[in-house]
């Protein structure tokens, strides 16, 4: 896969995609969104067990959707552009494998929304988060009003989105928007370490766990509990479960095959 705006790297079972548009601090135009969608559509989730999403360079993860491209849109075109980003981000959120956002620098507007579509967020100490859209006369359009409230609670989400203010890494950590903050030089090593740790576990079990957490969120409790029980049962139909438990009993270590 060759892309103009995406840099790909493979390390064993871990794939890294870096958005690279240095002239606009990695702002997302429709070409980049198209490339991201193509990348996600074709990602081999049997070969890779974890995906890392980051921004190229140290200054910016993604500085938002491309304001220059959006400036002259009418209502219908705005809706189409928003829906395209929302569709791509939903594909990222529902990828079978876990996705880690390694946020290096600005994650504003569509950049913060991209990070929130990932399963886990870690960031560098120079990261800056925010949804500045209302200062441009728009609202978050790539599902930020949906995911921000779910991640950090409605009160904090409303304050951040209504004010449009930018937040530093320590505050993002305090409100639970990110799981950890690292020095910029350490960030990618820490992201890979987390991804490799995830990749050593039984891949079908990890997939089922992601599916459960995502799908159960909107279910009534009884339905969610029944769903988990069903998926728990499905794990016992895998070789990984047999091999993993046998390895424990034999005091060994299991190399999971994803079968
Ligand atoms: N879009 C387009 N170009 C951008 C963007 C952006 N989001 N962000 C930065 N750039 C460009 C700048 O215009 C500049 O280009 P040039 O050199 O040609 O003037 C270059 O990147 C470097 O930027 P700065 O000189 O401004 O760099 P600074 O270090 O001074 O500032 C900031 C960095 C603070 C990140 C600043 O660039 C900034 O405020 N950027 C805009 C951030 C923003 O408002 N993002 C939200 C955009 S709206 C959005 O994401 C909505 C998502 C949903 C859309 C739904 C569509 C319907």
Please report the total strand number as a whole number: 10
Helix percentage range: 40-55%
The proportion of residues in beta strands is 15-25%
Described by its quaternary structure, the protein is: single chain
Largest sheet: 6 strands, mixed
Shape: globular
CATH architecture of the largest domain: Alpha-Beta Complex
Q: What is the topology, as strand order, of the major beta sheet?
A: 1-2-3-5-7-10
**End-to-end distance:** 27 Å
> Count of helical segments?
11
What is the CATH class name of the largest domain?
Answer: Alpha Beta
User: How would you spell out the order of helices and strands?
Assistant: EEHEEHHEEHEEHHEHEHHHH
Number of domains: 2
Small molecules bound: octanoyl-coenzyme A
Let me know the CATH homologous superfamily of the largest domain: 2-enoyl-CoA Hydratase, Chain A, domain 1
Q: What is the alpha-carbon Rg in Å?
A: 19 Å
What low-confidence regions span 5 or more consecutive residues with pLDDT below 50? none
Mean pLDDT metric? 97
Give a written overview of the molecule:
This protein is of the alpha/beta class and 259 residues long. The chain folds into 2 domains: 6-199, Alpha-Beta Complex (2-enoyl-CoA Hydratase, Chain A, domain 1), CATH 3.90.226; 203-249, Lyase 2-enoyl-coa Hydratase, Chain  A, domain 2 (Orthogonal Bundle). 47% of the residues lie in helices and 17% in strands. Strands 1-2-3-5-7-10 form a 6-stranded mixed beta sheet, with helices on both faces. Strands 4-6-8-9 form a 4-stranded mixed beta sheet. It is globular, with a radius of gyration of 19 Å. It starts with 5 loop residues before the first strand and ends in a 10-residue tail after the last helix. The mean pLDDT is 97. The structure holds octanoyl-coenzyme A. Octanoyl-coenzyme A binds next to helix 2, helix 3 and strand 6. Octanoyl-coenzyme A (CO8) is lined by residues 24-25, 27, 63-68, 70, 78, 81-82, 85, 106, 108-110, 132-133, 136, 140-142.
